[in-house]
Design goal:
2 copies of one chain form a homodimer.
Chain A (H helix, E strand, L loop, with lengths): L1 E6 L7 H14 L3 E7 L1 H9 L2 H5 L1 E5 L10 H8 L4 H11 L4 E4 L3 H12 L9 E8 L2 E6 L9 H19 L5 E5 L10 H13 L5 E6 L1 H6 L4 E3 L2 H26 L3 H9 L1 H11 L7 E4 L4 E4 L6 H16 L2 H15 L1 H5 L5 H5 L2
Helix pairs in contact in A: 1-2, 1-13, 4-6, 5-6, 7-8, 7-14
Chain lengths: 356, 356
């Protein structure tokens, strides 16, 4: 049995999108149980539509809902201990749930997750990992915006975190891992990236096939299973790809409505276009997975529809089912046992966090 | 009369692509003159096919051609003073040409351009600017890979350089300028970016409409005329966008050949698809413009066809015609006259360069 805690108030649409998604997943995964947090008067009517869902769910009323435009500090001030988002995260900490899913605002969810769950013992900073569609399938890309800048040790943490996720989600025993850089030659790029590359090559880990540097265009090609970068470049890469996809969708719409012939062609090819639109639709992607915390938190896209939110739940389910946290902890222990200097040379920011 | 120096040996195809491009431009711009550098036995036969081009061109034989895979240091060692690439850049320095175009390797061309032309008096580092197709037309994005990292002063330099280019190429009197960041709020992002933002807002320059921060997806939207970032993030954004465009082209091809209906639709819409392919084809983009040097150097895409190389020449032509360098120098002078501390607080790397 896998128990998932749900912040029903997150996202642009709230319970109206979240609850039907739970029903979808409950049908597909009979061993799933939900712990749902949200405002009674909004969630109960939706739940009433799915009696079968009610059988596998517990619901708890929360007075407070974090708003999509709350700053992380505001959200913590108003929503700590009592908002649906906080309660959903806390359920993971207390053991009431194995993973938490929210479509709420990313900064608030990350702030609450860090505060409540804490980073893993040897991890300085959490990362947000995206599942990136590629020509070969999907890749894990991290960090896409949890923090700005990363030293070599933090990049290695991200590599280990991302590898654990790729093993859990793709079922690959030894995922290929690349460090995002401005060239593939070993002499190119930021010092931190070069140092991380040397250390990963030397570490030669059993669970990770270190490929070397990759460039921006390798992400869409699917050159590696895991692309590692710091949060500034990663966030810009992710948003630039989303922007490019939207831009080309715009060109395509314009091209298909320009002439009569094109319009006729569109009618014939409509179902092919619909499939293509699905592939290009960033709103359908699963948002981000928070890695490096003592618990699994999945951030679904704020604008996600029920299918998108269901996909985010199933992603969390798969990671629990495949023991993501145990895998990551085993790999971190193994790496640090062989590289004891790596741990002593880093400065932790956990103490600062606690005072926020 | 505008004189353009041409490295005929650059690019994947060399003179066979370069020389026909010159003919195309010579027809469209009767006041253009070319100074061509390359290997006699390869260039002369191509030139012989276009007697009209020969009338507006001078040709100089160069024994050495920089290879596409030469490292910058190798290229400087073997090619300085004598390669076709060096000679083309040197023609700008000596005044024999107003701008230089090469499809040769970027690192070598930048190394030679820095060595030969030097950076402008108040500029620490040159930038490579890309013309980025957007939903609204085109934007200037810089730096896309000349150097890694940039402090606030260097970001401001890039903003001034990019503004000059946008004014010259788009004919906009006061281009909008955005700093690439991971959020649009003033409190977000790298310290350098935040400081540059404050300084640009305070400077309130007559030639520049400072918009604020922009995110990765704003580039394709065309939110601003000029997007400013340091070279690491800029290069990753550019390559990620190229990769995404290629990825979607792959999806489109697959979608249009999957069913009979889709194939029929494709036949009807073929000309629309051809137009779309042209828009998405990164090989047709003009490569990059080197900014911040005492001379105009345009790097055409290595894989460019004749139309692509012709576009790069016309870009250089337009920048000369519209007094790019004078505009940039006037803006730099104006900025530094009002912000004298900006100049004294920076460290120049010009001396180091001279010893390379």
């Amino acid at each position: 049995m896998i128990r998932i805690s749900i912040d029903a108030m997150g996202g642009d649409h709230g319970p109206a999108v979240v609850i039907p998604a739970l029903m979808t997943v409950a049908t597909r995964r009979p061993d799933i149980r939900f712990v749902i947090y949200g405002r009674e008067e909004l969630v109960r009517p939706e739940l009433a539509k799915f009696p079968k869902l009610a059988e596998v769910s517990e619901f708890f009323h929360c007075e407070i809902a974090v708003r999509m435009d709350d700053k992380p500090s505001q959200a913590l001030r108003h929503g700590r201990w009592k908002s649906s988002m906080w309660k959903a995260v806390e359920a993971v900490k207390s053991g009431a749930a194995d993973a938490c899913i929210s479509a709420g605002n990313t900064g608030a969810l990350m702030a609450m997750s860090k505060f409540c769950l804490r980073t893993m013992a040897t991890i300085d900073r959490p990362a947000i990992a995206a599942l990136w569609p590629t020509l070969r399938g999907e890749s894990v890309v991290l960090d896409v915006g949890a923090t700005i800048g990363a030293d070599a040790h933090q990049l290695i943490d991200f590599a280990i975190l991302g590898t654990g996720m790729a093993r859990s989600v793709f079922g690959v025993a030894r995922p290929t891992v690349g460090l995002l850089n401005v060239g593939v030659e070993e002499i190119k790029g930021q010092e931190e990236v070069k140092e991380a590359g040397r250390m990963l090559r030397e570490a030669n880990m059993a669970s990770m096939n270190y490929h070397g540097f990759v460039e921006g265009d390798d992400i869409g090609k699917g050159t590696v299973d895991v692309v590692v970068t710091e949060g500034f470049a990663g966030n810009i890469a992710l948003k630039t790809a989303e922007g490019t996809a939207r831009q080309i969708a715009g060109y395509l719409r314009a091209a298909m409505s320009r002439t009569l012939m094109a319009k006729i062609g569109y009618v014939f090819a409509k179902s092919a276009f619909d499939r293509l639109r699905e592939k290009m639709d960033v709103g359908r992607s699963n948002g981000g997975v928070f890695l490096g915390l003592n618990g699994i938190v999945v951030k679904s896209h704020g604008g996600a529809d029920s299918d998108g939110f269901a996909a985010a739940i199933e992603l969390g389910y798969d990671m629990v089912r495949n023991n993501l946290l145990d895998r990551i902890e085993a790999d971190l222990d193994l790496f640090h046992a062989r590289n004891p200097h790596a741990l002593s040379s880093r400065k932790s920011d956990v103490v600062i966090d606690a005072k926020e």
